[in-house]
Amino acid sequence: DAGVTQSPTHLIKTRGQQVTLRCSPKSGHDTVSWYQQALGQGPQFIFQYYEEEERQRGNFPDRFSGHQFPNYSSELNVNALLLGDSALYLCASSLRDRGLTNLGYEQYFGPGTRLTVT
Amino acid sequence: RKEVEQDPGPFNVPEGATVAFNCTYSNSASQSFFWYRQDCRKEPKLLMSVYSSGNEDGRFTAQLNRASQYISLLIRDSKLSDSATYLCVVNPFPGNTPLVFGKGTRLSVIA
Q1: Which among A62, A109, A110, B44 is least surrounded, fewest beta carbons within 10 Å?
Q2: Residues contacting residue A71 through CB under 8 Å, at least 6 positions apart
Q3: Considering CB atoms only, which of A33, A42, A109 is closest to B98?
Q4: What's the DSSP call for residue B39?
Q5: Is B92 within 8 Å of B31 (Cβ atoms)?
Q6: Chain A closest CA to B8's CA: distance in Å?
Q7: What is the mean pLDDT of each run of 10 residues along chain B (111 residues)?
């Protein structure tokens, strides 16, 4: 059973450039959430995709956008890169609908993409 | 007040010691709680889910006190391999909604 996969593992970009990061969720999962983790901090929520639509968004500018494909995989795009965008970008996979229960929505993380902006 | 606050650490403990991490959360309506473990430069890995007053998994025990909005993680008989950062995580809303992470507490278990 394949876990969450992300590509690339590392990326170095220059200020002003654009980047696309990719994620494939765990088999059987249909929801992808993206998080940004700066050094020494906990992950911060960027947005969540379900049924190919952005469902929820954290406090990130419009430079951050995403997409979900019919096979549930997802992309995160960041335009006009800033030095402050340097971070570990994590994709988390989960199952959207667990029936009536509010519990059991564990999210499983991929290995992340480490982005360095110079 | 931050949404999720943890002991700053780092905790340096000898092998075999018992260590406890504390965490408080601000949203009293929060539904579910988790502890994740994160090794250096790796992704967070789910260690335990905490839904009722607490649960136990081998050497690890998590407790939840909703009245005090407090979660704890106890590690007994620490191993060198327990060295990592432990993240306290809260799901503030019902359903599959964004997780809110604490900054994490670093643990070093020393031989």
Answers
A1: A62
A2: A24
A3: A33
A4: -
A5: yes
A6: 11
A7: 87 97 92 93 94 87 94 97 97 84 96 94
